[in-house]
């Protein structure tokens, strides 16, 4: 990046400041980004001046160190490849840190085992989430994507473009659930939020042949499956729990089980 301003764009796609192992490299990287954002050159002279104005030149190793960096790499042509190496090493360091924290949690044994396992999974997930996080994009790119989506919707002649919820009036307003959305259903306890969410999954998979996954921290797998069959077969849930089913109920239950089994990858994730 110090050799060529054109290399900055290639590096930005792969590396963030926190990915650098040496702290002063992060300081230099941030100074280069600031210059690049303002359309300024990113050579040694301008970066030195930028660091001096910010009072960070000593933290960056001084002007002599910046000149040393330009002599280490003979060309800026491979900047993108070098950036990938930096990013990969950063992920590996975060993996080591996460492993250390997981080991410490295991030895400390503070709290419920289930909570410790969930925390350990969250540590690992946070690594991949940072790696896959979407960065800023120019507004023109976002507008282009929006226009493409509008044109695709127009080509469907008003038909559903998202995932149906099973509630026709809601689907008319939203045109279904769409990728990238986070839908929050809020209500007081015992108001039917989980039942509503299960209805969404049921509409997607059983009614419209779209895969769905249902996560729950309050119901076990059998409970989720029982509620699903109750709603789909129109059999009162209390009759299923008590085992007071009539012969025609068993027939409807068998037919419902077949429809659920044929649904694409309908699955539940809950405590056992």
Brief descriptors of the model:
mainly alpha, 2 strands, elongated, DNA-binding, helicase, DNA_helicase_DnaB-like_N, DNA_helicase_N/primase_C
Draw up the topology in text.
Layout lengths: L5 H7 L10 H15 L6 H11 L8 H10 L6 H30 L4 H20 L6 H16 L13 H7 L18 H15 L5 E3 L5 H13 L3 H6 L4 H16 L4 E3 L3
Parallel strand pairs: 1-2
Helix pairs in contact: 1-5, 2-3, 5-6, 9-10, 10-12
In words, what does this structure look like?
By secondary structure, the protein is mostly helical. Helices cover 61% and strands 2% of the residues. The protein contains 12 helices and 2 strands; from the N terminus they run αααααααααβαααβ. It has helices at 6-12, 23-37, 44-54, 63-72, 79-108, 113-132, 139-154, 168-174, 193-207, 221-233, 237-242, 247-262, and strands spanning 213-215, 267-269. It has a two-stranded parallel ribbon. Helix 1 (6-12) packs parallel to helix 5 and helix 9 crosses helix 10. The longest helix has 30 residues, at 79-108. It starts with 5 loop residues before the first helix and ends with a strand. The mean pLDDT is 85.
Helix content: 55-70%
Give the helix/strand class. Answer: mainly alpha
End-to-end C-alpha gap: 53 Å
**β-strand number:** 2
Please provide the ordered H/E string of secondary-structure elements: HHHHHHHHHEHHHE
Number of helices: 12
- Largest beta sheet, briefly? 2 strands, parallel
Low-confidence stretches: none
- Spatially, the strands of the biggest sheet line up as 1-2
In one word, what is the shape?
elongated
Radius of gyration based on Cα positions: 27 Å
The averaged pLDDT comes out at: 85
